[in-house]
Protein: Histidine triad nucleotide-binding protein
Organism: Porticoccus litoralis
Amino acid sequence: MSEETLFTRIINREIPADIVYEDEHCIAIRDIAPKAPTHLLVIPRKPIPRLVDASPEDKAILGHLMLTVGDIARQAGVEEAFRVVVNNGAGAGQTVFHLHLHILGNKKFSEDSL
Ligand code: 5GP
C-alpha cells in the first residue's frame, strides 16, 4: 500500500494545520512557510500526485478547485489581487506530491514577472 501524503495526513487530522476552508472535495490551509502575507494551499482530498497525473475522471475535482479558489480568496479578503500557482514536478519546485494550488495575496506583484 502506498504511503499517505503529507497533505492526506493533514486532511485526516494526523498532522495539525491552520485549516481555513473545507468541503467534501477539498481543504484549504495556511502554508507553513508563507511566501506572501496571505499564502494558502487548496488541496483536493483525492491525492493526485501532480497536475499532469490528473485524468478525465478528475475533471469535476479540477473544476471544483478552480471555482473554490474564488470563494477562498474572497473569504481571505484578497479577491482583487492574488495569484494561483501550481508547481508541477520537482524541476518546477514541487516538494509535496499531492496536487495543490497556492493562493498568494496581500503582496505587491511586479508587472513583468510571473
Ligand atoms: P510545493 O513546493 O510542493 O508547490 O508546495 C508545498 C508547500 O507546502 C510549500 O509552500 C511548503 O511551505 C508547504 N508545506 C510543507 N509542509 C507543510 C506542513 O507541514 N504544513 C503546511 N501548512 N504547509 C506545509
About this structure: The chain is about 20% helix and 20% strand. The domain at 6-105 is CATH 3.30.428.10 (HIT family, subunit A).
